[in-house]
Design a protein that fits this description.
Helix content is 47%, strand content 9%. The chain is mainly alpha-helical. The chain has 3 domains: 64 residues, 2-Layer Sandwich (Dna Ligase, domain 1); 69 residues, no CATH class; 130 residues, no CATH class. The chain has a two-stranded antiparallel sheet. Helix 3 runs antiparallel to helix 4, helix 6 packs antiparallel against helix 7 and helix 10 packs across helix 14.
């Protein structure tokens, strides 16, 4: 047979070169997938120690993608994309709005567990006029906290304020008001430390020690007087004149005759004082006893402290609420007080 009639043998891949390309692409794809999985796994469970605690605010309607962005923005995680890829193959619980505490570098599984338990950072609001007992009750309403334990610690004498007299275990009047952030792991001792520290800062700003000395009072007496001013004055414009009434009555040796002191002895926050209450044999009954109460009766605001230390001049000895907005009228004589009381009664005020 002629030579040109012989068939030439061709390799399998030589006959179909595109198959080699497909195989190479498939191998590359496998490598990419393996690398991506490895990257996500590294991001999901980073090695080394965790970093600082971070509070993340999760808004209503936030989904997994939004959570990933928030976590990456606050540097809890290194990559939002990695978290999204991880969540595609793992269950992420329903995300409730609120504040969450995470540690930087925390694993994705641990993050999902935290989210599953719901918000774990709470706000504790301590308004002026509150007592230790009321703070304990409010704290006890937060998940993971025992108000009874807080109250026992706050009244046990082991956690003290620098303004507290020797032998006293009463922290009423000596804790700062405002909002406190309750994060996971915060102990009652640490919280009390924050509250005492805040009050100390407020006392320093208003010049408590020097101001009390100008009035002839100890700092603790000034705080006690300011607590009465807080409960009796309530609103800003009343505080200064009420403080002047307290000082005028003390100077004259008159009983203060403040309902708030009797209510404190009864363990009540507000309400009507009855004739029987006025006869209560308690050292806090300022109708029966002259001078200040043995301890503060609430936490005074910085404004009440300032008003007590620098009250306006005046010879007032009496006051009564005469407007629905809480405005009080002040009198120098009992006859003036009776006229103001009649005005209040005419306006339907208690």
């Amino acid at each position: 047979m002629p030579a040109h009639g012989h068939a030439r043998r061709v390799s399998r891949f030589g006959r179909h070169p595109w198959r080699l390309g497909i195989a190479a692409l498939a191998a590359l794809a496998v490598l990419v997938v393996v690398a991506a999985v490895a990257w996500v796994e590294v991001e999901a469970a980073p090695g080394g120690q965790r970093g600082a605690q971070v509070i993340v605010d999760v808004q209503p309607g936030t989904g997994t993608s939004g959570l990933a962005d928030a976590l990456a923005h606050d540097r809890v995680i290194g990559s939002a994309l990695a978290f999204r890829l991880w969540s595609a193959f793992h269950d992420v619980p329903l995300i409730l709005p609120g504040h969450y505490a995470f540690d930087r570098g925390e694993g994705f599984g641990a993050i999902a567990a935290v989210v599953g338990d719901g918000p774990n950072v709470f706000s504790l609001v301590v308004p002026p006029g509150f007592t230790v007992s009321e703070v304990a009750h409010r704290l006890g309403e937060l998940p993971g906290h025992d108000g009874r334990h807080f109250l026992a610690l706050a009244t046990g004498g082991t956690v003290r304020s620098p303004w507290q007299p020797a032998g006293s275990t009463n922290l009423d009047g000596l804790l700062g008001t405002g909002t406190y952030r309750i994060v996971p792991g915060l102990t009652d001792t640490e919280l009390l430390g924050q509250m005492i520290g805040r009050f100390d800062a407020e006392a320093s700003r208003v010049g408590l020690a020097a101001g009390a000395a100008r009035l002839g009072l100890t700092p603790y007496q000034a705080i006690t007087a300011a607590s009465i001013v807080q409960k009796e004055g309530v609103i800003q414009k009343n505080l200064g004149p009420v403080a002047r009434v307290v000082l005028n009555r003390l100077a004259k040796g008159m009983p203060l005759q403040m309902d708030s002191t009797v209510l404190y002895a009864l363990g009540q926050d507000g309400g009507t004082v009855t004739k029987a209450d006025l006869a209560l044999p308690s050292p806090y009954n300022s109708y029966l006893h002259t001078g200040l109460t043995p301890t503060p009766i609430c936490f005074p605001s910085p404004a009440a402290l300032s008003a007590m230390l620098s009250p306006p001049p005046g010879d007032w000895l009496y006051f009564v609420v005469v407007r629905a907005d809480g405005t009080e009228a002040f009198a120098s004589t009992f006859s003036q007080q009776l006229a103001n009381e009649a005005l209040a009664q005419k306006r339907g005020l208690p």
